[in-house]
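Question (not urgent): is this output format expected?
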Amino acid sequence: MQVDAIGVPADTTASNRAAIQQEDFLQVLLAQLQFQDPLEPLDNNEFIAQFAELTNLEQTQQLNDKLDTSLSLQNSAQAIGLIGRSVQAQTTTSQVVGKVVTIAFQNGTPLLTLETEAGGFITDITLGQISVIR
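Got this back:
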């Protein structure tokens, strides 16, 4: 059975995303209100639409955070299910066959250690490198 790589982006923290943050949006909105022309104030419909955008932005960020967490948990469960199983993996130099003996996590990414048939160990195998589970 082939295992598809299910990955979480390397940078999953909300503070490091390129998208506009809620605080930035509020600062722009407050500046707009502060410097608006008193003779032509901001239209109520436009004001409500901007608040709706803010709510939508916040909900989208929460959804992204939950999706990232879900993918991370799925990767972890998939890796844990491979302990004791024989797998075939592609390394930088060749295909190797070995039994998964341990799992380490680096930045939320599971890294497998394989014990080869010759008794050696190959470390830092990712789920994406596994092509066959035996």
